[in-house]
Amino acid sequence: MKTFGLIGKNIDYSFSRTYFNQKFSSEKTEARYKNFDLIDITEFPKLLKQINDIKGFNVTIPYKEVIIPYLDEIDDTAREIGAVNTIKIKDDGKLIGYNTDFYGFSEALKPYLKSHHTKALILGTGGASKAVSYALQKLGIPVTYVSRSKSIHNFVYSELTPAIMEEYNLIVNCTPLGTFPNIEQYPPIPTRYLTPKHLVFDLIYNPSQTKLMKLALNQNAKVTNGLGMLEFQAEKAWEIWNQ
Fold this sequence. Notes:
Layout: E1 2-8, H1 15-26, E2 31-37, H2 44-50, E3 54-59, E4 73-74, H3 76-81, E5 86-89, E6 95-98, H4 101-109, E7 120-123, H5 127-138, E8 143-147, E9 154-156, H6 162-167, E10 170-173, E11 199-202, H7 211-218, E12 222-224, H8 227-242
């Protein structure tokens, strides 16, 4: 039986295992999908030796960037983004890295985009944020990061003035803040400055409505979570594994 799986850390909450196993069952596919919870990425080579007939992985927080040195090749898009969330294992054992996050995010975002969504704030600077930045720039939307640490490329949260919040009316949360079970956490943006013209896209999907989304709804902003993105990127990963 073919095996696929998710590489991450503290991933019991994961969407992917349930999604793919239900898919395999409904489509009568002889395959299984497992979680591979790694304490450190250095455990990855040992994991490969332990699994029979492994055909592919998804990769999640916090390994989307540090997995790259363990791969034989990465495709051009993943290289440009600087993060991998899908690995295909070829018949000769070579590991090829891809990024389907940018595709998933783009497809999930498009139904919500309006003409006034002209500039975006990306909360967080990890692997997911790189894919989101790539997707937004492909859509012609300039981005600025927001982080806890200051650099020439980003704001820190304390710098988010009313004027900045008005200028950037698309906000994408790429941090894990608010993920179950820590559902009262949220990135410390000044939500009181959100308006009905703002769109808040939270990549978190568990819970389905995060604290950040609730605060945004209180200001009559539009919101969506990351479930649609996950479904789109998962289907793209399945396409890659089978090509």
